[in-house]
Fold each of these.
Amino acid sequence: MIEIDRVSKAYDGKPVVDELSLTVPEGAFCVLLGPSGCGKSTTLRMINRLVTFDSGMIRVGGEDVRRVPPEALRRRIGYAIQSIGLFPHWPVEDNIATVPRLLNWPRGRVRDRVSELLELLRLDPATYRSKYPHQLSGGEQQRVGVARALAADPELLLMDEPFAAVDPVTRAALQGEIVRIQQATKKTIVFVTHDIEEALILATDIAILERGRLAQWGTPLDLLEHPASAFVAEFVGGEASGLKLLSLRTVADRLHPSEVAEGEPLPSDASLRDALAAMAARHTDRLPVVDRAGRPLGAIALADLVR
Amino acid sequence: MALQSGIVAGPVPPFRLHNRVLPTLFAAGVAAVLTTGFVSVAPNRLLSGRPIGLFAAADRRLGAAICVIAAVLLLTSFAPPARALQRAAALLAGLLCLLVLAASGEAAAAIAAGAPTLARVSLGAGFWILLGTTALALIDALQRAGAGAAERCAVIAALGVAIAAMAHAGLFDALSLAREYRTRHDLFAAALLRHVVLVAAAVGPAVLIGFPLGVAAVRRPRVQEPLFAVLNLLQTIPSIALFGLLIVPLSALANRVPAVAALGIGGIGPAPAIIALILYALLPIVRNSVAGLAGVDPAVSDAARGMGMTGQQLFWHVELPLALPLLFAGLRIVTVQAVGLAVVAALIGAGGLGSFVFEGLGQYAADLVLLGALPAILLALAADFLLQMLAALAARRLI
């Protein structure tokens, strides 16, 4: 879907992105992760040409982005940012309809699309379509921001720390929504964050950037189990990465089939982190495991968690 | 702070003071009535007059009505605030305004009836203070009643109609101001129109020049410093000096280029006045354009560009509407300022209401000065009110 090929960008002679190469497959949820100043936002903004790059090549859907007029390119790519940037003088409906109207969709189609998107983001169309941004909570504003980015059904969605400014509870809900939407629509998403926890929840693929270069590219499990450098190991959490690893693996990976144990059983799709928490809470080192239908599958022991 | 004050002796429960503005205005009004002349009478229009108090000058019934209504109005400040009460207070204040005006006309007519034809009855300090305090009481009551734009418009229109009807009925005819108006009544309409034209001819081009300058300054921040230095410098030149400074280059231009002179442009007259007014109007227009456009949240512009708006679309659909309230504020400042400055422009032969002011100053005839100054003040107030309403309308669409 996106091919970034030896792309560089410097500001005042200082390289911000340095010979970066990255290929994001279609349908991937790719998270660009790294400390501030690592070039992740710049990389994102080069994809829709809000930032021009000095050298290299970026292709979206096989097409060189510099061959397309920037406005036409951007209307094909959804865009959501941390500060949301809703138009304060337009009601929710007009905000969401921005790109469809730029593309001259017929009125009826725009109206239907706005209703569809509000429902997708769990906002009641009758209540919300005529509200103004200042009448919405932070979380509702960001839902409208995401709906606006999705409005013209773009094949690709660029999101720059979209949930960084909302409270933790709202953030968790929005993260759930975006995963659900991505799985339902199979859109390709490039998502910038500095938050490793958020990256592990959302990503199918993570690119860790270090001073404008790609430090590692892989699945969340790859990064935790085989960090390519001390920088990556440190960034994904050092010692604490063990706990994150536990939260990515499920009980099904480590259980002993046909063994039995006493107590309230764990579902097989629970994470190892949940299993550890359950054992600590119940003062036991063995718990039975059942499948979704409640049929016994076996047991898991404390020692299995660190195996 | 709760001020406890019993207004009647005896077992009546003490009322609490809820409004400090009305008692203050009431005290000022009482002091004005007791110590200053409501009207002044002079043997002719050039001599200064002898002050006559409200009760000596006006009909007893009018004086009594003013006292009773003012006292009732004062009482409302001791009652617990309620919307209906504030509306009633506004009504009383409006009525008081009209009564004060009527008393001035009635007093002038009564005094003039028993005096030689050359005698003049002018408005005294007491009249102006009473009118001012009742107008402030009206504004205060409207504010406390939470009156919206429509209500305020209606109140002003009602007052305007009532005053016009009183004038039409000849109630003010005996006042010196009205007699000055009658002798120049054919010149007055032309002067008023000329004044409005001067202001419009200055404010229109100032917006057409100033707004693009503001846009350019926002786009290229390096331009801002020299631009504002020049505009600030212009603003510091005294208006009379600027009018004078323009005489030399413009008359030289008119002498050299006959086509320019044929257009009526010369060292004196409306041309230098309009140029000077434009120069004064530029700073507020440019400054508010820059503030309005620079105040647009960068995240909003970033989102707009990221979604594929062109530069033109961004400007017309996002930046301009968001800057509009500040643009209106700038327009309001320069319009009011131009109405005032255009009075001075009469000095260089630009005409307008200022011609009465300077003629009156030359003759030492205060009422002729008023004939120019009063309409200019009303014009400024009207422009201010109108543009304030427009700005509120623009802002309501935005907030």
Amino acid sequence: MSTAGHGALTRTKILKRQQAVSRAMEGVAWLAAFTAVAILVVVVWSVARRGASQLSFDFLTKPQIAYDPTQPQGLANAFVGTFVIVAIATAMALPFGILVAIYVNEFATRWIRNAIGLVLDLLQGVPAIVIGFFVFGLIVLPLHQQSALAASFALAVMMLPLVARTTIEVLKLVPSSLREASLGLGVPRWRTVVGVVLPQSVGGTLTGVTLAVARVAGETAPILFTSSLVANGTSWNPTHALMTVPLAIFELSDQPDLPSQQRAWAAAFVLLMFILFASLAARWLATRSKRKLGRAR
Amino acid sequence: MTEILSESSSIEPAVRVETKRQPLPPRERLETVFEIENLDALYGSKAALKGVSMEIYKNLVTAIIGPSGCGKSTFIRCMNRMNDLVPSFSQTGTIRYHGYDISTRDVDPVAVRRTIGMVFQRPNPFPKSIFDNVAWGLKVLGMKDGLNERVEKALTQAALWDEAKDRLKTNALGLSGGQQQRLCIARAIAVEPDVVLMDEPASALDPIATQKIEELMHNLKSEYTFVIVTHNMQQAARVADMTAFFSISRGEEGARWGELIEYDATEKIFTAPSDKRTEDYVTGRFG
Amino acid sequence: MRLGDFVLQGVAGAAAFASLGLVALIVIEIVHRARPAYSAFGFSFVYRVIWDPVHDVYGAGSYLFGTVITSFGALLLAAPLAIGIGLFLSELAPKGILAPVTALVETLAAIPSVVIGLWGLIVLAPFLRDHVDPALHSVLGFIPLFGQAAVGPSLFTAIIVLTIMILPIIASISRELFLAVPSELKEGALGLGATRWQMVRGVSLSYSRSGIAAAMILGLGRALGEAIAVTQVIGGGTEILWNLFTPGDTLASKIAANYQGTSGLLETPALLYLATILLVFSLITSVLAQLIVRHAARQHGAQ
């Protein structure tokens, strides 16, 4: 004899209520995800709509000339300044980060490894404005002079944890069999590290650097105290303070007049496009290097 | 293709075991819990099981035996809709539970699992206290009345009460493997299921722990119906009233799937099987 | 040891130890430059509400208030939203939209603060002012926090901006935590007949709770230190007003607002004093998050 229908399954009333709650919570999660996507779309759309229309050849190639508003205004000086500052910052942070990663992975004892790991985390947590103030006190005040170099140093300090971390991760992935093979052949330790291990990590390090560049190119706070009192005209001289795109946006956003605001949106659009492009590049590099390392094992 | 051996001949079983098993009541007195008809189970386009048909009876221990890869786990997980968790899974055929087809999409798998419980191969207690492990299911199913008594009863039935009663609030992860598995059994039976499915419950445990679990099943089958998957023939011979033998069939282009070969009283499966493949397996003639 | 090995280990070691010294150097430099202010005002600087360059008297009180209210307000809004997103990305998202949505959430993190600040100032603030603030005031006006609606920049706009900025970090950490919950625990819960939400609540959230706490603290740290976007929308108010719809200021934002120079003699050291407080906050939150992660790793390692 058998029990027919629903009677076979127990406690269906309480289950109905619990399933309703479960479905409601699922709805909440969907809503949360939708909200995040909506925010992103709204912001990017606002910037694109207001900024893209303002782009012109003049904008990209002519500098900002504050003393003569009748001249076509552009932000060439800011683009140049950002390029110089970020390039120098990368040149500072990259070798430093790689050296730190090499030490952590190849030479350090566990204690030192933990200490450096902690320090990198602490460094990443220091607010950008504090780092700017730090470089201000360390370099700008004693020299009585702002400079792109000082700004680069501040950005380099911010890039260091990212570059070091990614390089450490990538070095860890290099199979020890490679190291052992090289050492077994009689190749000295330093040669092994530089000639065998490091080349394997190029992809990962490149990813880390690209991510770090995407991160600091948009930073304004460290620039405020190190490279904000800028002269007019486009300059490539790193010993002077140079205008940067984020700072330009920051200052233009404060102005009440429409042309300034329009230039702010245009600059924001260019900055956003650059950063999105860099982030995509980083992601593409990451998948490529993972595949390469996967083959090496 | 089956080779029927004559009724009178019996084989030299590969397994001789001590068993507490009682002789089976006559078939008319057995109540059907599951009626499985023509079950096919597929992962994507690959068949894992084909054409399984059998009945599982109340208050018996039914063992599912067979070589690796014959679909035993897939089969048992069909019975409580656990395969729903695998995105590529699909099945055809019917699984009637007390006459009600539970394999269709419009039956809530959560409802199914509340009366058909499961114990898994590796003990998986929650990282909570022993008490909370058993109590969690009770709270979730709304059986909060007399919580303490229910927990004690479940732990007692799972032969864990004596070892646990002084440390109910300690973390369950501090228990040994065998104790953890008994805790998982307690957790499953606390919510008063009708059927308890066990997917190789003792394969990760030592012989003494295994023995405790087998004793458990024997003592509890008057209250629950057990279906146990095991790769250990001796265990099936010791513990099961009915035994189902699954094996791997091959087709063209390297296709392999599991099929139910023979299903009968354990005694018969191990001493006078009807199918040659069953005989080969239980006498250890192949791996 | 060969010369090459010696050189490499030396140079790499120098870089490593330099990085160890970097944090110390930052602390020393900031504290050193803030000393004139500390000598002049002592510890009472931390709670005094005044910023007067003319008479050269300063206090961090209103900025501390602004920092605490905006950061915790943002955390309050961002945390449940981010955890929901983490759950969505780990349990619910159908195959087709999982990758795009994950990428979109990460992209939100990449938007520079000055761009969010610009958007916040020109697009968000008027919208909040015209539509959201009055609605909140009419419904919750009995709470002093939601007093008379704003005319211009406000603490509330800053809170919304900060929420948007810390949302992605908490969300991606939560997502990783939920993906790391062992599947046998989830199966155990589902096998008992738990609904999906019961399983998430009883197993996933419970297993990940330390990690989520650490994620929230990291998000809080990010909010505490944000200077640019906040200063663009918050209005630079100097008093402690409990109405969210009035202008205010935070530690970081006050520092940023004065980048063009200071007038009072002690004003720059006072700003550095603010920076010291900010630095202490950031170090505490970083260390706290680390401790929680390490404690959780030990607990889970016991299995």
Amino acid sequence: MIVRAAAAATALSLAVSINVASRKAEAKVNPAPDPVKDNTVLNALLTAEYDAIATYTAGAGVIAADVGTAQATRDIVTSVAVHFQDQHKQHAAALKKLILDNGGTPVADAMTAKIPTSFPSAATTTDVMKLAADKEKHAAIAYVQVMKSISTAAAAKLVASIGGVETQHFVVLYLLVEGLISANDGTKMNPTLVVPAAFVLDVGGSGTTNLETFPALDTLLTLDPP
Amino acid sequence: MTEKNENKNSSPLLQEQAMKDVIKKNEQNEASETSQTRASDSTTSVATRRKLINAGAAGAAAALFGLVASACGSDDDPGSPATGGKGGSGGSSGKAGSGGKAGSSATGGSAGTAGEGGASAGSAGEAAGAGGAPDVADADIVPLNALLSAEYNAITAYSAGAGLIGGATTTDPLFALRAVITDIAVSIQSQHRLHAAALVDAIEELNGTPVKEADVAAKFKAPAALIANPSISNVLKFAAGAERGAGVAYNQVLAGMEDAQLRFLASSIEGDETQHFIVLAALVLGLASPGANLSEATAVKVFPEAFVSTVGTHAGLDAMPADYFA
């Protein structure tokens, strides 16, 4: 009964929407779809992903050497950082694939982190989290701003699917740094659930995760019975 | 349920197949976009693409509306598509995936979530089309209005949620945190208001007619599962599920939009919804704890801005917070 009502209602809405769109919509595709032009933007984003991956690698080294911070704290931060880094690797792979699909050539991985000059030479675990928060914030902003020039639906879908995850990385790191949230045993036991999916939508690729379809998350967020 | 609508939807399986067909066409169009639009972009192909993509986007937007409103459905009311067919038990608190993808709405506990949304999005379409739009309306108005409806639903839902939290009993495990949780919820709600304002501006710039908040709010009903157990944890789960669904739906809708500036707007909001989702989920699922610096005074800092990138007069994360390392 529930399924029937849902399907029926959604179908009705879809029919109304299609009718309106077909009857009254005017052509206005701006900019005109051009996958080749999109590749320039996609390659810039790919460069940023490579930088993020290298930054997390460099950060892990700093954390490992930060004997002034409790080992338990360093372990949790490292496990979350490794998880975030893995998601950036998935982003890079998806960007590379789309660039290739568009007939372009993906940029090479410089495998070097761009570290700001103000980053302390004797950095702490907290400094690494601050640096990562900065990078994630800038990435999130960039993924949104390039939307002004992205031309194809496929690129827009992928770019937004990644950008919506960078924002999650940012806010988690930012809140930890600011002391507005704190890690706990749940973080330690389930670091991969802290930001559970590498993409917002299913963008293909083996082993990737997305918020759109995530049965374990469905279960976890099921309302408790009385 | 009206007779007319019963007739229209007499075969759920057929309806579901129809939705799948639309989504499939949309996906096929995305694929052809890659292979066919490099060299040329004829008027005919653009028009075809626009119609198909818009159809898919509208469907996704419809599902988004359903997601937020849905979880507000009641399984003890048969409802009707015309007036807002009721969702399920709120089982998955608004499962994002099936909510956003209309064609998969018949999956599991989240299937019910599409019920109320479907009809609501229908009214969004009416607002865009018959409710005052010019003879040749912009193709992006319908999905924008569906997103606006979802924002209004979120605003209403947070008000209802705040009321439930305020009425929590001392035995609620999160009772001690009720004040700060309420402040966070109010902060999130204020960001949804900013999203709505930006969407209204965008719709009006396209000479469309925005849906009215009062009309959307009037259809709101809290989900039966939440009413049955209005714990603070359930309020947070409900909110996290709805924010997850909103992020998914914004992503689906923006991919089908025609204008890059509107994709930018939708993307800038999407990234805020995903922040809401992950923080609410982390707290309610025990993946993080309230920090030492979290208080009623600092709750507003949890989500620094309502947009990822500044949109007009609405500040984004490029405005605040400042970098730790310049």
Amino acid sequence: MRPEISRSRTWAVIAAGGMAALLSAACGSASGTTNAASAPGITATSVTIGSTQPLTGPAAPGYSEIAPAANAYFKYVNAHGGVNGRKINYTYLDDQYNPTSTATQTRKLVLQDNVFAMFQALGTPTHLSVVSYLNSNHVPDLFVASGCNCWNNTSQYPDTFGWQPNYTIEGKILGQYIAQNFATKKVGFFLQGPNDEFGTDGFTGVMDALQGKGLNVDSTPAYYTPTAAGAMAVAAAIASLQAQGVQVIVSFSVPLFTAIAEASAAGLRYAAKFVVSNVGSDPPTLTAILTGGALGKALPAGLIAGTISDTYLPVLTDASNPWVTFFQSVKAQYAPSLPWDGNVEYGMSEAYTFVQALKAAGQNPTRASIVAAVENSHWADGPGLTPYAYSSSDHNGFTGVQMVTVGADGTVTTLGPVETTDDTATGPITTFSGSASSPPANGIPSD
Amino acid sequence: MTTALRRSTLARHGLFFLALAIVLLLLTSFVFDPYTNYNVTGVAIYAISAAGLTVLTGINGQVSLGHGAMMMIGAYTTSVLLTWHADLPLILVLVASIAITGVAGAIVGIAGARLRGPYLAGATLALAVALPQVPSHFASIFGGNQGLSVPTPAPPAFLGTSFTSVQWLAWIALAAGVVTFFVLANLVRGATGRRFRMVRDNEIAARLAGVDVARTQVLAFVISAACAGLAGSLFAYWVTVTSPSGFTLNLSLSLLTAIVIGGLGSLSGAVLGSFILVYLPVWTSGFASSLNLSSNVANNVPLAIYGIVLIAAILLFPRGVAGGVASIVRGVTRMVRTSRRGALPTAPEAPSP
């Protein structure tokens, strides 16, 4: 009999201990001091997020660095204690900039890898193929790496947020610069498309700004498709602009196609002024494509000298900017094989915003709480030149850009102040009066 | 019973595919997790398409590099119909896609029946390159590069609320796959299949035996296009967006790869090849973010693995995985037989097709 008694006593002790542990856990989560697995992809010690990226294929040159750069910043954060004690696991899959792959890879992330949220999924045509799926499954779709206006659609896509200034905002500010500086020149367009919102949104913005300014505009754009076959057709598209007598080419194109367009113009002895969207103008990326022989032979980097573009992040080569020096130090330690270029700055800046959102979502974030956190965000700091515009009715990120020009050696010089506007046809363009922020001392956003 | 089964191909196939259908029904309903269901749907879709290509290329000997373009016709038929009338019954959409793609296949087949070998490959290659350009020129109908979105078919209410749309689509795709393979398995074992092989092996002999070579070739094209149309239609439902970039030359080449890796001319090879096509990227795609390599290397690891698998498969199984499995089975049976009967001489192996 004795062993029976002692065994039941042992069980009683274990049961009591278990109850106590449960009680303390329950109290803990109520008072917000213990980490719990509060949502899919969240455990007490980790947060898993996913992304689809063009790691190979026609959009890979340049863009394939974005996710590894973001991951470098996450590694930095993880090494400094993570967010509320949780480490960030970032799983990014290759979709080759092909919407069909985006669809299958996103299913893998949501159904198999069980991600908490999607983060910086890249590309307009690609991400459009999954945005309905993500929203119908209430997966937070944070900071799509694309400037399509379509991400700001709070009724249809309540869980989707943009991040960079959308292409219409960017187009309006580019258009204003053209109207002020190239008033006597004939303006034409080289766009990804037709019927690609990257091209059409940018075109809309530029045309809004040129409206009624009396400029000579060739309103029939030349288009390219972002495929290997499309790359062959760029020279013909540029030749058609030359035949129309276009002197200023507004280009909403991914880097590889900007490089092909500028190289084609040079090959045709066509001295047009290129005004290129931020996403297609990063000088280190273009230089690497031109000089690296990606276009069949090594071309001089000087081809891109004089290109006009814009930026919404600090200028890469500005060594006095604290964000630039901070991100460079993170890159040197956690991703030394990456170059220092606009894609890396982009990836790290967006990762910084994600950490801001995750912190604001509370100790035990849920999918609903992180969406609410971004909508109610009034984060003072951030690497952007303008503050975030997020609210419950606005899922746009930054709302303005600063014009820049590229020098013969690839350095970027700013032209004038930071301008902000909205994406309506008549919304005025105003000069931003706020001041730039600095990163916190430890490089991790405070609450 | 057993002799009746042995005599009647139709009864044997009927029983086999019925059993297969029941097994798949149970697996998709109770065993598989949502992601497996999603991938199994993909395998079924690629298998239907690859089976059509097997009939055309493996059994009839006409090389097509444009099978992806045929799938594109099926997918766009579905997407355009659903854009016009979102509530069209699924079966009607599938039948319309099969019919329209079949007609397109007949047109290509009539042109293709005049061409042989590399010339036919060239003509179908042109189709695969040219067709994806069409949607951007008629953007008002086809939605341009952005493509058309396709609503996910909702499961009927009697299946209950816990039955997901992923499971429903898996049912539809697998049912379509079972029916397709049942029809094709009977077709290739019957008189039509014999005519197909005869034309492939020796056109002059076929003509002397009274076979209309051109008609046979066009028929093979129509059958393969109908399969591609069905697969394309299901593909549109599966991906939920139909855009030209989903139907590049790559897709046509992948399908050709699938039937070669699986085993040229065998329907089970088409299934094995499709399985590899869907699951290889699933297994390798996480490497870029999980391996601690420089991103330039890690990004390309999945592509390198794909290439290595292709090379290894061709080296190890020159007659495809299905052929490799068959010869292993044959080798084992022979060993068992010789060990049982002692050193009796065995009949020489029949040459495989």
